[in-house]
Amino acid sequence: MKNIFLVVLLLINQFVVHAQSNLYRRQQTVQQVVIKMFDALSNRDSVALKTYSAADITLFEYGQIWNIDTLILKAITQNQSADFKRNNSFEFINTTLDKSTAYVTYRLQSVIFKDGKQSTVQWLETVILVKEKKRWKVKHLHSTFIKRS
Q: Which pTM value belongs to this model?
């Protein structure tokens, strides 16, 4: 009887470990979409930016509501500094997902070099992603500015 109990316990443990491992991989996949979207912004690449954004994306920035065109205008079109460079670092706080929706909260710090000056900007952000044709896309992004130095 002890042997049967031990075998059942080991099987349950394997199932739990596999389920947790699968969830962790799915969370990392969603987090990578967020990272790649910001990489596209940093590289001023509107095509890549659209790849990681839902067509009807909404962004809540600085008390305003932006769409993809506003984001491209402000972050890419109007950003023509020849020496522009942006490095992003993320501290993921929470990533929750089901089959077609994901919620990601993180701290974002960007070191930005532009027009010969360097600044560091920090935000607290929440992103909602949706699955479109088996690919995760950012649907909503709410950004809270923390500080600039």
A: 0.83
